[in-house]
Specification:
50% helix, alpha+beta, 3 domains, four-stranded antiparallel β-sheet, binds 2-acetamido-2-deoxy-beta-D-glucopyranose, eight-stranded antiparallel β-sheet, Jelly Rolls
């Protein structure tokens, strides 16, 4: 035995030591990429991904090897730490070399290396790999404007097959689950159940892996003076919180909105259904009992269980499945500790599970926990754009379907759109400011997306700016659907609107820039009603305003009751701010008089009705994407890659189309990776 060990040890050591750390490879890869060394970049970047996988593999093996120790604290904590450390030393040589900063972890998590890889492969004429890398990046960043365009180009290229468009990082449980779903939809119950079982165990092992990796190292934060017990408590709760988040990581499809049910529960629901259709009552009962661990008071679940037990001849008292029961036991035990820490040590904890029984939460915390949960829900969960956040929730806006978001446009993008306004005006071509039809004290001008794009084609405005106008609308579209969880929305109308105060006519003004009205009905302030009938635009369901500036006086947006007088909320425009609301009478609104300067905004309306979708948007899309213009095809064939933020396509510098850039560039990290990105 000893001899064998002696032979094995140097082998593992030699093997793992030959592999540079992931961040080092990533940094090299990106540096080579910017120098145009495509094959060097390709090899380093793949190396970085492989290295990351191996480091994780080593940590997982160690986590398992150093499994639960004895019952005493010193055994639990100290011996495990000792075991982990020596195990990792053995596997990785110098474990500290392989530790990543949270920022670097995030780069990998978002699949950024794949965006470089797709272009490197493309330049090397390896189209299949290029398309696969692009698709992998797209899966993690579905709203990234540049990658959407690149994928469209890949689809049109000859050397690219349908199979090329695959996710290279799809976790096994997700692949199995979608196979199971398609079997279910074909009505093939028996094979579907097998797949579902496979998928469930893959899901549970992904969960285990994620939880094991939570015990990795943490960066030391501010070195304040703390009692040793405080330090331990602090570290320990962090690990527990990380473990509690794992169910979200496993359930969340990358780049998508968080599902209502976690992955384990949705597996169980499908399994219960399928077993009962297959009349396998024993299994159906076992699954129902497992499900009731999450939802012990779910009446329909209990009724189902009862009926399965009757079918089994009144046999009851069976057990839930052990793998599920032990997961529930463990996660509940962790929650108890975390709530204890929240109550007594004031360490914040946000429970990720909707099914947590109230008994677990200490009574003194219940109110706070409930309020925090509502607040988190209103904050829209994970919004699809990293730069965007909720500033005023529906509740803060004293309404229901009404929200204010910030960060939809960057400062440069607002400036770019304001320049578009000036260019359009200077061209003298259909963007004349005329006296507003609502007030003689202001001028009003409006520009549609299509008009802007046509002007760009004619050379009278900058094309990038016109495209940005188009993409700003796309962002509002994505955000409206995601925040309000609507059915698919169609563009109904989009225009860039500016309101300008006429100098010398502002004394003692009492009128509004836009009087109170509702967008899809006729507001009757006497009757306090809103009539949904023509000539109102009755098909409009959601309205959105993206503001471009705040260097003017007045011009706030305000909401009122149906009387048109009682103001319920007021919002100050500013660059990049998006206000979205339902278009009905519940959101009667107006614009305060603009008494100095010019106020510009992009106004958008969306409809749920496909028949009412505007044709103009379609034409605009063709102009932006160039789908019907084969002349442009040649130059457009090249995917432009490597940029980091969801919207960098527009804000990046077109003089250096292939150099990765974007907001990421401005952040710094210890290991300097960001300097390159
Ligand atoms: C660390 O200290 C800095 C400055 O003293 C402070 O701004 C920052 O919030 C602290 N970070 C943490 C995590 O306490
Ligand atoms: C909502 O109403 C409260 C109380 O009237 C008010 O203080 C608050 O400013 C309102 N919210 C907005 C966004 O105006």
């Amino acid at each position: 035995m000893r001899v064998l060990l002696l032979i094995l040890l140097p082998l593992t050591l030699a093997q793992s030591l030959s592999l540079p750390p992931p961040d080092e490879l990533l940094m090299d890869g990106v540096a080579l990429f910017s120098r145009g060394d495509w094959s060097g970049a390709r090899d380093r970047l793949w190396g970085a991904l492989r290295s990351l996988r191996e480091v994780r593999g080593a940590r997982l093996r160690c986590g398992e090897e150093c499994g639960p120790r004895g019952a005493h604290l010193e055994e639990l904590v100290l011996e495990r730490a000792d075991c982990l450390l020596s195990c990792e030393k053995l596997q990785l040589g110098q474990p500290s070399l392989y530790r990543l900063t949270p920022e670097t972890e995030k780069i990998f998590l978002r699949g950024a290396p794949y965006n470089y890889l797709q272009l490197a492969h493309y330049k090397l004429e390896e189209l299949d790999e290029a398309a696969a890398a692009a698709f992998t990046f797209f899966t993690r960043n579905p709203h990234h404007e540049q990658i959407q365009d690149d994928l469209r180009r890949y689809r049109r290229m000859k050397g690219v097959q349908q199979e090329s468009l695959r996710d290279l990082e799809e976790p096994p449980h997700r692949a199995l689950f979608s196979q199971a779903q398609s079997l279910l939809s074909e009505g093939k119950m028996a094979p579907a159940v097998l797949k579902l079982e496979e998928s469930l165990s893959a899901c549970l092992s992904a969960l285990r892996a994620c939880r094991t990796l939570c015990e990795g190292t943490r960066e030391k934060e501010n070195q304040t003076h703390q009692e040793i017990s405080e330090v331990i408590a602090d570290y320990y709760t962090r690990v527990l919180q990380c473990k509690q988040r794992c169910i979200v990581d496993v359930s969340l499809a990358p780049g998508r909105k968080r599902p209502k049910q976690d992955s384990i529960v949705s597996h169980l629901r499908l399994l219960q259904d399928s077993y009962s259709q297959l009349r396998e009552w024993e299994s159906a009962a076992e699954i129902a009992r497992s499900l009731s661990l999450f939802h012990p008071r779910d009446q329909s679940l209990l009724k189902n269980l009862q009926s399965y037990e009757e079918k089994l001849g009144g046999k009851s008292g069976g057990k839930p499945r052990e793998s599920i029961a032990s997961y529930v036991r463990q996660t509940l035990a962790e929650k108890k500790l975390l709530y204890y820490a929240m109550e007594n040590l004031d360490i914040p904890f946000q429970d990720q599970d909707v099914w947590t029984p109230e008994e677990i939460v200490p009574e003194s915390l219940r109110e706070r926990v409930r309020a925090e949960r509502t607040a988190a829900e209103e904050a829209g969960g994970d919004l699809p754009y990293e730069e965007v956040s909720v500033t005023l929730t529906p509740r803060q806006m004293n309404g229901t379907v009404r929200v204010t978001l910030d960060g939809v446009l960057s400062k440069e993008e607002c400036e770019s759109l304001l320049s578009l306004v000036q260019e359009a005006e200077a061209s003298g071509d259909g963007f004349k400011a005329r006296r507003s039809s609502y007030t003689p004290k202001e001028k009003f001008q409006a520009l549609t997306v299509l008009r802007a794009l046509e002007m760009a084609s004619a050379g009278s405005v900058d094309t990038t700016r016109a495209h940005l106008f188009y993409y700003a609308g796309e962002r509002a579209h994505v955000l409206a659907q995601s925040y309000f969880e609507t059915s698919p929305l169609h563009f109904s109308y989009t225009q860039l609107v500016c309101r300008t105060a006429i100098e010398g006519e502002q004394e003692g003004r009492s009128d509004a820039s836009h009087p109170v009205h509702a967008d899809n009905c006729i507001l009757d302030t006497e009757e306090k009603a809103c009539w949904k009938e023509p000539p109102a635009y009755i098909h409009r369901d959601y309205s959105a305003m993206i503001y471009l500036n705040d260097d003017f006086q007045g011009g706030n947006l305000f909401f009122t009751e149906l009387d048109g007088k009682s103001v319920t909320a007021e919002v100050r425009p500013q660059c990049g701010r998006l206000v979205m609301y339902g278009s009905g009478g519940e959101n009667a609104h107006g614009v305060r008089a603009v008494t100095a300067g010019r106020r510009c905004a992009i106004a958008l309306w969306f409809t749920e009705s496909a028949e009412q979708a505007e044709q103009e948007r379609h034409q605009a899309k063709i102009l932006v994407k160039g789908d019907t213009n084969p002349r442009e095809e040649k130059e457009k064939e090249t995917p432009r890659a490597g940029r980091e933020t969801t919207r960098s396509r527009i804000s990046s510098n077109d003089d250096e189309p292939d150099r990765p850039s974007g907001r990421q560039q401005r952040r710094r990290t210890t290991r300097n990776i960001k300097d390159e990105l």
